[in-house]
Design brief:
Length: 114
Amino acid sequence: MLSECEWIYHLHEDAMEQDKMQSMQRYDPDQLLASLIGRLNLKNDAALSRALEVSPPVISKIRHRRLPVTASLLIRMHEVSALSIAELRQLMGDRRGKFRISDKHFKPRTDGKQ
């Protein structure tokens, strides 16, 4: 039998897991890409890749969810579309209030590689 504290802890864990699953289900890079194509009056993904100055496989990988929309690409989308970062994130289904970068990115490497 679980104590009240353990029960509350498991209830909180379950709620967090459900939140995570729901946010993953709502993530839709297709909507973001389609909106950009429409806003910029482009014909297809190849034209979008030229406008964003990325290779066509990058757009394809994002569309097929094999590559995330990176911060640098999001900034480039902002520059060419004049949509705010918040609007772009909304279009792709990112509902987080804040976007955090892992502190792992700021730690020096310990394996001797540069």
